[in-house]
Amino acid sequence: xxxxxxxxxxxxxxxxxxxxxxxxxxxxxxxxxxxxxxxxxxxxxxxxxxxxxxxxxxxxxxxxxxxxxxxxxxxxxxxxxxxxxxxxxxxxxxxxxxxxxxxxxxxxxxxxxxxxxxxxxxxxxxxxxxxxxxxxxxxxxxxxxxxxxxxxxxxxxxxxxxxxxxxxxxxxxxxxxxxxxxxxxxxxxxxxxxxxxxxxxxxxxxxxxxxxxxxxxxxxxxxxxxxxxxxxxxxxxxxxxxxxxxxxxxxxxxxxxxxxxxxxxxxxxxxxxxxxxxxxxxxxxxxxxxxxxxxxxxxxxxxxxxxxxxxxxxxxxxxxxxxxxxxxxxxxxxxxxxxxxxxxxxxxxxxxxxxxxxxxxxxxxxxxxxxxxx
Length: 374
Known about the structure:
By secondary structure, this protein is α/β, with parallel strands linked by helices. It has two domains: about 5-30 and about 270-370, Aspartate Aminotransferase, domain 1 (Alpha-Beta Complex), CATH 3.90.1150; about 35-270, Aspartate Aminotransferase, domain 2. Helices cover about 40% and strands about 15% of the residues. It contains 14 helices and 15 strands. The protein has helices at about 5-15, 35, 40-50, 60-70, 85-95, 110-120, 140-145, 170-180, 205-210, 240-250, 255-265, 270-295, 320-330, 355-370; strands spanning about 20, 80-85, 100-105, 125, 130, 135, 150-155, 185-190, 215-220, 230-235, 300, 310-315, 335, 335, 345-350. It has a seven-stranded mixed β-sheet with strand order 2-10-9-8-7-3-4, sandwiched between helices. Strands 11-12-15-14 form a four-stranded antiparallel β-sheet. It has a two-stranded parallel sheet with strand order 1-13. Strand 11 (about 300) and strand 12 (about 310-315) form a beta hairpin. Helix 5 packs across helix 10 (about 240-250) and helix 12 runs parallel beside helix 14 (about 355-370). About 45% of the residues are buried.
């Protein structure tokens, strides 16, 4: 497969480990190993101390899957397959889609959620948002218009990267009703689950509501444990999950033994990870809102409803790529331009999960004052 470059990841590869400031990261600061292990129960400590670095079960250990299951309402242990998130997405696309099929995907979107479908020679239609009244919105009626006779998959992501959008419950249920009417599976990327800024605005996982729904979640975004490289697919479609298990035999086969134990500890102590991340995100959104007020001549900012990112829109004549390149080279601040999302040339992603946001914004303000306030 001569697959197209993954634009977001290629851009990160250029700057993620050399730029001084990461203003576009979608994850939160990673937790130290000691923080995780200090939360372990006696049995988890024993599992860690006696761990042998051999192969693990393809589906994920029963202990890990039990820790995952507690965060869903209707799924069983055998409704879970543990994998890395990227691998899970790759397997899913290869199982559900064939050459000539049609898929619908939100836009802007993380590229792997639609590019693999394209590489499988499927056609892809993009469900695009409106940007008005100081907010983003995805209208289910627009989704329905995109359905074709050969539509085999609908791909959604809530909380949404990069806009920070999440639908109201009635719109979420309408998406399910549309898919159910046409018999189309929904692949729901829920990597930012529980990072909701209003305690009443969180959505139930797709797999709990729709018999033909598939949910993806993991440790990278919600928990601030991206280095574990661990995620999981959940679905009531057991035939589909058996195919995922068989396909995985040709890829990773099984998961990291160390990551499984650390993820189990995190899942059994979720508030110890989620609440500090949420507090950091919400505090940084307040800071960025004030930063925007001082610089609203340069860009528009819609406060995100959920997740750890927002998608700002520049008002200058230069492209977002040109702006980002100049910014990182002069200040060391990395900003992710919308060209990497294949979504025009005017937007950029901002991430709110870094503790050094005040310092970043101070450096950014000096740059704007120097170049854009004359």
